[in-house]
Amino acid sequence: MRSLIVALSLVFCSLALAGPPDASPALIEKGKATFTINCVPCHGATGSGDGPAAVALNPKPRDFTKEPLKNGEKPEELFKTVSEGLKGTPMVGFAHLPEEERWGLTYFVLQLRNAGKPPAAAAKPAAGAAKPGAKAGAKK
Ligand code: HEC
Questions:
Q1: Is 27 in the pocket of ligand 1 (CB under 6 A)?
Q2: What residues contact 113, with CB distance under 8 A and at least 6 apart?
Q3: For residue 74, what pLDDT is reported?
Q4: How confident is the model at residue 136 (pLDDT cuts 50, 70, 90)?
Q5: Residue nearest atom 9 in ligand 1 by C-alpha distance
Q6: In what helix (H) or strand (E) does residue 78 lie, and over which residues does it extend?
Q7: Nearest atom of ligand 1 to the alpha carbon of 60
Q8: Quick one: residue 110, left, alpha or beta (phi over 0 = left, psi -120 to 50 = alpha)?
């Protein structure tokens, strides 16, 4: 069973490397919802590192809206960080979340990073990435 899970994760990883999905508004919404549950306690609602649990952490979550990302900020790199965490820090991996949610988190983090910058810089330059309300809520 365990090896099946490992095998499946490998398949997912190679799919992920094959290419990130488009940063659709629906996917980013999904990311925002799961960010609120899983990440806000440490990172705070805007990613500035002021979540209620942050005071107790060492090292503390940095302001990932401003500071360079140690593991890179291409969608693929950030997806990997979200999936595997940062070794030796309280930033654990979230591989247990469905892949789609992790992509949502990836793009939501990029959106937080790019708040105030033109949206085109937010993610990969996917055509139609910024279409508002295109299919929000269409799929559960
Ligand atoms: C238990 C607290 C905690 C939780 C929960 C947590 N993080 Fe982190 N995160 C951290 C800490 C601490 C760091 C900073 C580590 C460092 O600077 O070495 C970090 C770093 C990061 C970074 C910067 C990575 C880099 O390459 O520099 C990102 C992005 C990030 N977290 C995203 C998330 C997301 C998305 C979630 C929710 C799925 C999440 N974190 C949940 C504590 C947490």
A1: no
A2: 47, 64, 65, 73, 122
A3: 95
A4: very low
A5: 91
A6: helix 75-84
A7: 12
A8: alpha
Q: Is the pLDDT confidence value at 119 over 80?
A: no
Q: Dihedral of CA 60/43/78/113: which sign?
A: negative
Coil/strand/helix, residue 85: strand
User: Would you say the CB of residue 90 lies under 6 angstroms from ligand 1?
Assistant: yes
Q: Supply 46's token pair.
A: 């805007």
Distance CA 105, CA 32 (A): 7
Domain ranges of the chain: 31-116
57-114 pLDDT, tens per residue? 999 999 999 999 999 999 999 999 999 999 999 999 999 999 999 999 999 999 999 8
Evaluate whether 92 touches 82 at the Cβ level (below 8 Å). no
| Fold type of domain 31-116 | Cytochrome Bc1 Complex; Chain D, domain 2 (1.10.760)
pTM exceeds 0.85: no
